[in-house]
Amino acid sequence: MMKNKTKNTRAGYLKTSVKGLLSVTVTAAVCLSVFAGCGSDDKSSSNPSTPDHTIYFRTEIQADKVTANFFNTVNGDKEDVEMKNTGSDDNGYVYSCMGDTAKYNKVTFTYDDSQTKDVAFNEFVNGWYNSSYGLVPYTEGEKLIDKAEFTTETLKYKDSDKEIYVWTPENYDADSAEKYSTIYLYDGQWMLVRDFESGMGSGCWNVAESVTSMMKESKNKAIVVAISTTEVTRDDELVPDLGEFADPDSAFVISNKEGIPFCDFVVNEVVPFIQKKYNVYTDAAHTSIAGSSLGGMAAFYAGMEHPDVFGTVGALSPAFAFYDESAWENFLKDKDFEKSPCIYMYSGDVQDNKLSAEAMKSGLLDKGFPKDKLFYHYNPNGEHLVPYWRNIFPEYLVAMFDREALLVKV
């Protein structure tokens, strides 16, 4: 029987003690040597020295002047480029300019007296829409996705229905010889549409828009499989039993630690179901899994336990601090890192999960994890909220599909 629980949010996990995770010294900067991602195919970066990529900015209110503020999170290089007004329609006004994806990996937009949050800038980003809902990815020339259309698949898990939300692109071809990659995501209720808003602020990750943008800008094709959790079950399903919690007395540590059987359900039930019903690749190189907070830790666990299934892991603001050094040492001790998936980690500042994410990154490298399969992005302005994960998600797509492009040239 499940324990009685008090309602909590993922922000609460930030207060869990790191307890000397992996006993390593951490750094606040991103290491260039680990910028290689885990992509499998299709489009490699040419690393030009001149602006190579058009980016669009759409806003509902006309601005006298719009500037794209490109910057490099590694060396601090910056460049401001004035954007041109390229037209308008019933949804607002569009501005565009060229940027250099070999030099910069982030951008903000300044318009009149306002400035947006910083968002990903790379070869897969077509545009960002400053809507009344917030800053969201979009693709210029394509219909704005207000509500992503998806199929709900229902599988049995522990005598209960588990909803799996499957998004396929508009031109999805179930019979094409060229198959689609698969992006599995934990906390599926936050991934696709605004209707599912709950917790963590500003609800949706808008992953359908990010994948649509990537497909417009490259030859890569993918579907999204968003695995739902609930306020009642997620604390159990996304926490693998790795031993004692680092701080068992914390009010935020309320879990039956059922993450291992739930991971087995994903690997043995969800993945085979998707691979049988949808026109997707079945190899790990074209299959990834990601999540944030508890979902980030659960994705890390799934990828490290099943590298033959998942070739890329996205651990955004991962809740590694739930366990202390000895638990992670025990989990990692028998892993063959040469066979491990590529790992993309992201975190905001100390009030996010910076300390434990950086400790895990440094600990993995100290233990011999290949530098070309580990990427860590630190955002000093980041918070433990959906908008920050939404804004960086296109970079995770690059980690999956084009590893060389994550080597930011300076």
Task: Give the tags.
410 residues, Rossmann fold, Immunoglobulin-like, 2 domains, eight-stranded mixed beta sheet, five-stranded mixed beta sheet, 20% helix, globular, disordered N terminus
In short, what is this structure?
The protein is α/β, with parallel strands linked by helices and 410 residues long.
Number of strands: 18
Classify the secondary structure makeup into a structural class. Answer: alpha/beta
CATH architecture of the largest domain: 3-Layer(aba) Sandwich
Q: How do the strands line up in the largest sheet? A: 11-12-14-13-15-16-17-18
Can you count the helices?
7
Low-confidence stretches: 1-37, 41-48, 197-201
Helix content: 10-25%
Overall shape: it is globular
- Main CATH class of the largest domain: Alpha Beta
Describe the structure.
A hairpin with a 6-residue loop joins strand 2 (66-71) and strand 3. The protein is an alpha/beta fold and 410 residues long. It has helices spanning 207-217, 234-237, 259-277, 294-305, 325-332, 354-366, 386-401, and strands at residues 53-59, 66-71, 78-82, 84-89, 92-99, 106-111, 114-115, 119-120, 127-131, 134-138, 151-157, 160-167, 181-185, 222-227, 287-292, 312-316, 342-347, 374-378. Helix 1 (207-217) runs parallel beside helix 7 (386-401). It folds into 2 domains: 10-43 and 147-406, Rossmann fold (3-Layer(aba) Sandwich); 53-138, Immunoglobulin-like (Sandwich). It has an 8-stranded mixed beta sheet with strand order 11-12-14-13-15-16-17-18, with helices on both faces. The chain has a 5-stranded mixed beta sheet with strand order 4-5-1-9-10. The protein is globular.
